[in-house]
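SEQUENCE-TO-STRUCTURE ENTRY
===========================

Backbone structure tokens: a row of integers, each naming the local backbone shape at its residue.

Task: work out the structure tokens from the sequence, keeping to the layout shown below.
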Amino acid sequence: MANVRDWLYWRLMRDFGVRGRGEYVNDNGTVFWDDSTGQFYEWTKMNHASWARSSVTSCTSFLYWVHMHIVNEGGFKPAGHWTTLPKLRGWHTGTEGAQYGDFFQFIPNHVGVLLDINGNLAEYLAGGADTQTKGRISWSTDYVPPAGFKFWGYLNIEEYYSGGTSEY
């Protein structure tokens, strides 16, 4: 049986680890999947029209659907219902102890999944907006926190999720 951290990393790499499937890369090397791609729909359940009409941000929708994949596809059970991240079992402030697969929250208001963290550099997947015209999911490598943000904390997914029935 896989642990939740390894299972999630494997599952994200299945959809995002292969380049050349509808994404584009900016000058900083950040890879994007916009709201016309299958990855965006799979991980937000929105397309361009629904994203443009909604008041939901693609980062919160992305993290919600990461959670749903963990529960429904991976078979891992959450410790409780999400209300606000700091009240959950497994929530930690700061970056100490954060690992790949953990959910993060930046202030102001940005969430995603860490793919790697080493000192003050991290790789992460998160939703976002592309010049206010398209939704997107991005794979970024940046300082923790990136310019203009504060790293509020992370959810240790091994503390929050238990069980699991999936093999990968």
In short: The longest helix spans residues 58-73.
